[in-house]
């Protein structure tokens, strides 16, 4: 696997710190969005009382994933807040009564779920991909194709982010147990935990526990950025290539934080209402991993961990430095797929110059695309058919590497949109 | 509410920008420039072979075209807010610098100026400027010079024959004795004390520059490696058929500006493929073409031509390269073609080149053996009709060389220069004897006549 690139990862800012929590926001703003789709029916109205885990909205269309309240209290308003992609989305504002009254769901012992119950539990608890895409997880298991392998992605490629890492350091037993249970429930042959080669500390820790789970295999993958992307990961961990989704080949890929959410759902009937978010970057006084409730205003969390080093000349990024988006303010609220809030020094962006055709964008692309050619042939439909811009995973490596400062990901994204 | 700037793209960036890459490129050229200056300016000055202008002339020879191509670029950007800056960062002066490095050092200043203008205008700006040109601009200038002043340049102006012109003049494949020895040994090729253009002579400096540029991730590293590798492999094969040792492929790699061309000209980012497979194919075909030019045509300096020709195919190679990223079968045919050509041409030239050792312009009319004295009557085509001469050789040494018939227009000049005496004096290293300007054809014919006769003599004595 040649694609991908080693990046300076800067994870040390938060890696070895204790996880802290910020779970007492006065208001939460539950974003009505899933996978960039804002077509969500709100199921509550102003004045309704909700509990932690109550369903407050449901996505329309095929993937009818529910959205839950993360606090108990009263619905007081519907307001617009920025989502992690910069878009404004409708949010349900709920006033926290700090009672933490919980919506009860039936639960069983982990290994005793049937496949149908398992899928149902995942769906009703709103478990979605937490590595950034937000794809409803139950769909991956609710398949006609026989599944045989689960790959748990613990590679956490993005520089700066350590949310998955600290999660594993603290909850490895639960995670391994859940993996084992998923295997049994779905009659899988193989479960793979994929971690990065260089992550020796993690491996040492896992090593102490893995002995009891004979069927779980740990696979070390290359340290390059880009490997965490499904296709590259499946290729490296399983030596399998596929056309559109790994499911075609009977492979499920889940992020480790998603596995932990599955654990919460199966064991306690907890909906996905909290997660660990890495708050990091040179411009934060005290970078930290923080457990936060979905819907918490990010500015409050930042305030609570010490605030910014300075209030201007900073960049505010929702997500990691590669895949994340810069936002014009810090009004962002936590969504289940927000893994990082990164605050960096403001910069003078590399001036855009003519493409020198150095080919670097081609050699780094983990999707095996030729970004420079897609840029050249933007208008040529026939040629685009061969260049397959739709395969772009928007990892940003081409942008990162381009010496001419050309916004390649943006260009490819718009070409992709244009083809639809 | 706080206000932050919003940026597109990634929030961290590789530190290599195009302007940094340009600095690295120029930096890697610096030792080559300094070495050229030392060889062509400082040494002659120290030995009092030249004056103060001659001392600085090599630098002027590089600066002048750089300045011209830079200014052309400025003019091109004149409507931009920062024309000077843009021209600088669009590699404006680099074209001229390369041009100076690849043109024969004796190129008259006027031609140098015209070539620079040509490079800039036809090579680059006409296509829409930086990043849009199909051909390597410096090579366009080079081609222009060769096309319009070819005759002047390649024979008269180059006062001492480069190893490859020498290789060509031999007509056959040659041997260590007549290919390498005239210049000492292969180390001289490696260090660069052989004749050639300013840039191309030192193999060592080119290789060092290659490593530097690879480490700094400035060039497409595959191209020089595979290009030179292909030439090496093919000439190794050819040499093998001709019972020539490993020195032959090494000689081929170290001469004709191959290393300079491979490292600097073939990797020009704008005019080379962007896809890895495209780059590999590009380099393989460059090697094939270069070998073809050297062995199959009368152009000794095939490197620059090969690059220009392959420039034309870049977009096709990129097409193959981009498709075969998803499905390698798209690249099978081109690779198959490349391998076939490499082997086929290698074997073909290996079997055939040496066979036509005789120069078709040369005829032995009669030879007489008298104990160990050979007396030849020979004929060689000159400028106007044939020149006929009697050559007597005794104990490996030419004892007399007498022209019997000739019809040459400028024969006076030959006589005036005592050319025949000169040839006789230097009969052990005839390759190094200069021709006479103004009577090039005639003097070359005389020289070749002697070389061919000596070859025949050697054959006779050995058998
Ligand atoms: S990395 Fe940038 S400059 Fe290089 S080929 Fe790609 S688009 Fe062009
Ligand atoms: S083209 Fe897409 S997948 Fe390839 S490097 Fe760029 S953003 Fe990543």
Account of the protein in words:
- The complex is a heterodimer of chains A (420) and B (463).
- Chain A is 28% helix and 21% strand.
- Chain A contains 13 helices and 17 strands.
- Chain A has helices at residues 12-15, 115-124, 138-141, 163-185, 200-210, 230-238, 256-268, 298-304, 360-364, 371-376, 381-387, 397-401, 408-419; strands spanning 19-22, 27-31, 40-42, 49-50, 55-59, 66-68, 73-82, 88-96, 149-153, 190-196, 216-221, 251-255, 274-280, 288-293, 314-318, 325-326, 340-345.
- In chain A, helix 4 (163-185) packs parallel to helix 5 (200-210) and helix 4 (163-185) packs across helix 7.
- The two termini of chain A are 30 Å apart.
- The model of chain A has no long low-confidence stretch (mean pLDDT 91).
- In chain B, 60% of the residues lie in helices and 8% in strands.
- Chain B has a 4-stranded antiparallel beta sheet with strand order 1-2-3-4.
- In chain B, a hairpin with a 4-residue loop joins strand 2 and strand 3.
- Chains A and B meet through strand 15, helix 9, helix 11 and helix 12 of A and helix 1 and helix 15 of B.
- The complex binds iron/sulfur cluster (2 copies).
- Residues 355-361, 371-372, 401-404, 406, 408 of chain A line the site of one iron/sulfur cluster (SF4).
Quick structural gist:
The complex is a heterodimer of chains A (420) and B (463). Chain A is of the alpha/beta class and 420 residues long. In chain A, 28% of the residues lie in helices and 21% in strands.
